[in-house]
Amino acid sequence: MVSVGAVHSVVYVLLLSVTLVLGGDIVHHDDVAPIRPGCDNNFVLVKVPTWIDGVEKSEYAGVGARFGPTLESKEKRANLTRVVMADPPDCCTKPKNKLTSEIILVHRGKCSFTTKANIADEAGASAILIINYRTELFKMVCEENETDVDIGIPAVMLPQDAGLTLERHIKNNSNVSIQLYSPLRPLVDVAEVFLWLMAVGTILCASYWSAWSAREAAIEQEKLLKDASDDYTNTENVGSSGYVEISTIAAVLFVVIASCFLVMLYKLMSFWFVEVLVVLFCIGGVEGLQTCLVALLSCFRWFRQPARTFVKIPFFGAVSYLTLAVTPFCIVFAVVWAVCRRASWAWIGQDILGITLIITVLQIVRIPNLKVGTVLLSCAFLYDIFWVFVSKWWFHESVMIVVARGDKSGEDGIPMLLKIPRLFDPWGGYSIIGFGDIILPGLIVAFSLRYDWLAKKNLRAGYFLWAMTAYGLGLLITYVALNLMDGHGQPALLYIVPFTLGTFLSLGKKRGELKILWTRGEPERPCCHIQEDNQSINSHH
């Protein structure tokens, strides 16, 4: 069990977290680096498998240059070629060693990248590998005043550690050979299909749970009113204490608070800060898993009695015996995930904790009417676009993408994401979706089903089917855009909000129910008339 204050803190942290769909971009578009004929390649990642004395060793990743011919995309078509060290090492002057179609390995020096490539090309090299003086990769471009950019060999930059390893083997008189190729990503990876199903399924489950809770509360109120119970005044808010309604002001403040939180993540991103996020995620995950397990087990008659029997515990209040039984399992589950989160299978535990937390949040947090939902999603729409695209003008990189990937933290992204490994992608990696892309539109989808059930509308005449379909289509369009942009991160709410919110508003206006949806958020129910009749009778007495 976790204290209510801690749980709510985690809920708000997660509500204000990343809203992004990412597929692991291998093509890096750059609007800053100059482009002209002969210098217009995309910056693509390059696989560099190595052989030392005929034995296959490590595989490194490099990045292709803006200039030179493009690399082969198929491994079987890439030639296995011997690597030699340049003399002088920076290759700013003609090499002293004679080359016969070898790949030349050079250091960054005082001359430009194109100068090195031209010299290596004229000396007879088949390709040039340039060692960066840092562990990260650097985009090799053409200088504005350079004219000789008709280069006939491919150029690839290697990170410092990879380049120095190859240099050390060459200086030890080992025979070093490599392949250079840049495999293409599949048009659609199965990870994206499963991620889509996970997102849609999570909202579906959360919506039905939220609607069922609202209907049970409404039935309970109707019973009390029909019996003209004197206890009505003490129970009129039954069901309301179990959830939190978002106000219009809170919806507007979302942008400010979320932006501050995102900038804090961006500025403080480090190993220790990710560790703090992991702890917060585990606290929320324990609460989410516990809540979902108790609700699920309560459906079976063997567990109904423990679920309805309570014991009072200091600081936590009344707690059911079933909750006491499942909590240790939930804590152990979260701790095991936290300890083993770098393992190849850890994404399964992260997704289980994440999904149960999202379902719990959508059960606890609700929008009272369409007005609040419109304000919230409109603000989130602008927030997403700003921090994915516009933030590049101020920070020289997309703040949202940097935070989602966990750059500079030494970790494989922050935990507030659902992720699935890209099984059929030669580059590996993960397809991810931020919690915000599920929670924020999920609030309005859940609201639509609550309205339908309270208004006793069937599936076709209601709003839920349309809202759910619109969300699924919006997320589908997001993945289409993701693949068209070669895996470069996309602000999912840019596509989801117009579909979901636009469909809801248009349908409400067409049916003449927009005013009720916009202000009251729930239909007229018999209980309301019963309450008025009771008040009228009491006034006569």
Automatic annotation (TrEMBL):
InterPro entries membership: PA_dom_sf, PA_domain, Peptidase_A22B_SPP, Preselin/SPP
Membrane topology: Multi-pass membrane protein
Signal peptide bounds: 1-23
Coiled-coil regions listed in the entry: none
Gene Ontology process terms (BP): membrane protein proteolysis
GO MF, one annotated term: aspartic endopeptidase activity, intramembrane cleaving
Protein name, as recorded: PA domain-containing protein
Keywords, in A-Z order: Endosome, Glycoprotein, Hydrolase, Membrane, Protease, Signal, Transmembrane, Transmembrane helix
PANTHER family, A to Z: SIGNAL PEPTIDE PEPTIDASE (PTHR12174), SIGNAL PEPTIDE PEPTIDASE-LIKE 4 (PTHR12174:SF102)
Pfam families tied to this protein: PA (PF02225), Peptidase_A22B (PF04258)
Domain PA as annotated: residue spans: 83-166
Role played: Intramembrane-cleaving aspartic protease (I-CLiP) that cleaves type II membrane signal peptides in the hydrophobic plane of the membrane.
Organism: Vigna mungo (Black gram)
Major site of localization recorded for this protein: membrane
Transmembrane segments: 193-211, 246-266, 272-303, 315-339, 345-365, 372-390, 427-449, 461-482, 488-507
Compartment list: Endosome membrane
Family: Belongs to the peptidase A22B family.
Cellular component GO terms, alphabetical: cytoplasmic side of endoplasmic reticulum membrane; endosome membrane; Golgi-associated vesicle membrane; lumenal side of endoplasmic reticulum membrane; lysosomal membrane
